[in-house]
Amino acid sequence: MSNYQNLPELFFSKAIENLNNQHLLKINNSTNEIDSWTWSNTYSSVNKIFQFINSQNLNKEERILLVSENRPEWMAADIAIMSNQLIAVPNYITYTSRDFEHILNDSKPKGLIVSNKDLLETVLIASKKVNFELQLIICFDKFENASIPNLTFYDDLIEDPSVKPDKYHSIQRKDPASIIYTSGTQGLPKGVILSHGGILSNCEGAYELLQTLKSPDLTFLTWLPLSHSYEHVVQFVTLMMEAKVFYNKSIETLLPTIKVAKPHIMTAVPRFYNNLFAKMQINLKNQSQFKQNLFNSAISLGTKKLHQQKLSLKEKILDLLLDKLVRKKVKNNFGGRLEAFVSGGGPLDSRVGEALNALGLKTLQGYGLTETSPVVSCNPLHKVKVETVGPIFPGVEVKLAEDSEILVKGENLMLGYWNNQEATNKTIINGWLHTGDIGEFDKEGYLKITDRKKDIIVSLGGDNIAPSKLENLLTLSSDIEQACVFGEQKNYIAALIILSSDSKATKEQIDLYIEKMNADLTQPEKIKRYHIIDEPFTIENNLMTPTMKVRRHEVEKKYSEVINGMF
Questions:
Q1: Which of 417, 353, 517 has its CA nearest to residue 190?
Q2: Are the C-beta atoms of residues 457 and 465 closer than 8 Å to each other?
Q3: 1: helix, strand or coil
Q4: pLDDT at 27
Q5: What is the pTM for the complete model shown?
Q6: Which residue stretches of 309-371 are H helix?
Q7: pLDDT value at position 29?
């Protein structure tokens, strides 16, 4: 275990060791050049925000909201808040003012650090509604200020280099670092209180997992929202690894940014990998038969190696050839240096995981919850088992309840839900966090998630059906962008389907795909009916959480007539 007592201490000790090295990078929107900060720049930015907050005389453990897209100032603000012995409350930039009303009411923050005018206005509309005044506001981007009280622009903050931000020395591992609101697929978000030690223990586990990659030029690409507990912890892992971080602002700019950033490591949610594999399949259709055969051979031989099956001499020679002809080209699409994709935030379809690993894009599936800071387990680089979520992280204990529910214990457990003792007591019982996931261990101690306790469809015949499995299978078709299945207390399963924007599939082709898919499913799992809808599930129409999970009950409400019509 590392000897860090808190997250600011981790940052300052690494910054002082690396002052002149490149640290945080992003593509400048207006010039298209790369903006780059050294560790010394990051240190100054932290210090400047720290000093301003410190001048406001806030009490220990007061809250400050952080609402911004991913950018270097995000990290600086997060560390500056915590260095003042305060609690950072990161929020999604996709939140509406209604979401902010709940968060302002619940966390009662003293201040707000925000990236731009539009986001500031969204929060201010909410604060007026609930009659809540913010004592301090820092905005990263400058704009014409029409007398907003207590607003200071980031560019106007002044650092006194002779003042060292040393308030953090008294912060203990068990003290609260941040409150992360779960984007719950049901009901109001709950504020999960994470401790400094909880996040540090996750970083220590990740360091062990990735330390073989350590190099002076190690680069992470970050694009998932930093307000997501998964990407939030990755931010501190990058500090522990003394790595460079390249920020990407949106999914639209992701592929071009990857080519520039040339990352070694990238984290994403399963939907990204599903889409990536579907795109590869579409591109493949336009290639010559010879190229298609090479690509498919790379997958089939790579899969054999992944499952540690012996290759014949002929296969070994062909496989070496495929490394040059296929895998190297695939890797070059991601900048050429990619050592690992990490997948979390939901189940990754094992066929997608298998194909990516077989193509030389090492894809490590992990498992966790916001409530566990968030990582519980992850596949290691030296031995990937795609159908599992890997061995348990160091310092984390896991046992299975009688019904095989996964129970977790360790320093990484949340301190509780903010202002919600009742929900805390329901989730943590006798020191064990009840995850709501069902699992099993294989012979080597790798954990496998087999079901979701909460997210199970119980058919009329009493069969338990996992909707995520069926939705993953549907979206493996390059023609199907999204899917949502239903069948609670019904005789069969039906699905709502959204086609990919570039799909030219006929009804017959979709029928055929579902028929093929059904052939491998048990009788209760088979999809008997489906309906194609035009509008995709998005964060904006409230049919998807900010972490890209479908809000099933909202879809059910909106499309109740269509769904009822299928039964």
A1: 417
A2: yes
A3: coil
A4: 94
A5: 0.88
A6: 313-322, 328-332, 350-358
A7: 83
